[in-house]
Amino acid sequence: MNALSKFLPDTYDPAKPVAVIAGKARYPILLVDAMRKAKVPVRLIAFAGETEGSLIDSFAPDERSIIKVGQLGHMLKSLKKLGAGYAIMAGQITPRRLFKGLHPDLKAVAILTGLKERNAATIFGAIAREIESIGIHQLDARVFLDASVAERGVMTGGKAKIPDDVLRHGIHIAKACARLDIGQGVVVSRGTVLAVEAFEGTDAMLERAGDFGAKDPVFIKTVKPAQDYRFDVPVFGERTLRKMIAANIRYAALEADRTLILEKPQVLAQARKAGIQILGYS
Question: 92: domain range?
C-alpha cells in the first residue's frame, strides 16, 4: 500500500504531476490542499463558471488551464501541455449544463454521437478512456483523501439509533436504485420510501423528503455495484448536513470506505451539535 494514499496504484510515480479536473464547490479545493500538504506536484484544469475562483487563483498561469464545459479536445491538449502524468476528476458540474450552456468541441461531439446511452457513467467513462488513451492515468477520486472516507459505526458518537429493520430497508432500496443507475441516495421512514435521488441531486431530494413531515426519516447513501471511483464518488458535506437540518432528517447512513465526508471533523462536530446521527455501514 502506498504511504501517500491507499487508493493510489502500485505503479504511481510521485515525480509526475497530477492534474485535478475541478468542478464546483469544496471537494476539489480540499483535494488540492491535501495534495499540496503531501508535496504532490499538482496542476489544474478549471471550468469557466464552475470551478471556484479562489482555487484557480492559487495556481500560477503555467500550472493551470481554464476551459468551457464540453471542450474535451481542449482538455486533452491542456493535460499534455501541463505535463500531467495523472488526472483526477473532482467536484460536480451543474447538472443543467449538460442540457443548456454546454460548449462541445469536435472531440466531444464525436464521443457523444457514439454513445448509445447518455448518463454520467457513460459520458465520464468515455472521457476517462480518452484521457487514458493519451498516456495519462486516471486516478481514483478518493486518492489523497483517505482521512475523509466514512468509517463503519456511529461516527458522531453514542449508540446507533436507527432500527436495524429500517436501516436494512433503506439500504435495500438505495442499492436497487443504484443498480438501475437512478441515483445513489434515498430517504425512508418506517418502511416507506419518501424520496429517491435522481438527476436533480441530493439537495433537492432531501428538500422533497422533508415536505412530508414523516416520523424519523433516514437518509441512506450508497454506491453502484460496479462503481467507477475515477469519476463517481458519493460525497457528504456541510451543505448536505444543512439540508438535512432544514428538512428535519435526523439520521444519515453512509456506505463505509466508499463515501467521502468533506471537512469530516467539522461536519461530524456540527452534526453532533445539531442532534444528527451519522453512521457508516458496510
Answer: 18-138
Are 252 and 278 in contact by the 8 Å Cβ rule? The answer is yes
pLDDT over 70 at 260, yes or no: yes
CATH of the domain at 170: 3.40.140.80
User: What size, in residues, is the chain?
Assistant: 282
The residue from 107, 138, 169 where one domain ends is 138
Contacts of 65 by beta carbon, 8 Å cutoff, 6+ apart: 44, 45, 46, 74, 75, 78, 81, 82
Residue 13 lies in a domain: no
Instruction: List the alpha helices (DSSP H) in 72-215.
Output: 72-81, 106-113, 120-133, 164-179, 202-210
The pLDDT value given to residue 96: 53
E-strand stretches of 205-276: 218-221, 235-236, 251-255, 260-261
Which three-class secondary structure state does DSSP give residue 63?
Answer: helix
- Write the CATH number for 49: 3.40.50.20
In a domain, 144, yes or no: no
Do 182 and 277 fall into the same domain? yes
Q: Grid coordinates 501517500 are at which residue?
A: 4
User: How many CB atoms within 10 Å of residue 54?
Assistant: 8
Give me the number of domains the chain comprises: 2
- Interval 211-228: pLDDT, tens: 999 999 999 999 998 888
Task: Identify the band that residue 244 occupies on the pLDDT scale cut at 50, 70 and 90.
Answer: very high
Q: In the prediction, which pLDDT does 3 show?
A: 86
Which of 87, 119, 138 is a domain's end point?
Answer: 138
Q: What angle do CA 199, 106, 108 make, to 5 degrees?
A: 25
Residue with cell 414523516: 214
Q: Are residues 125 and 154 in the same domain?
A: no
Q: Which pLDDT score, from 0 to 100, does residue 92 have?
A: 77
Burial class (CB within 10 angstroms; exposed 0-12, middle 13-18, buried 19+) of 101: middle
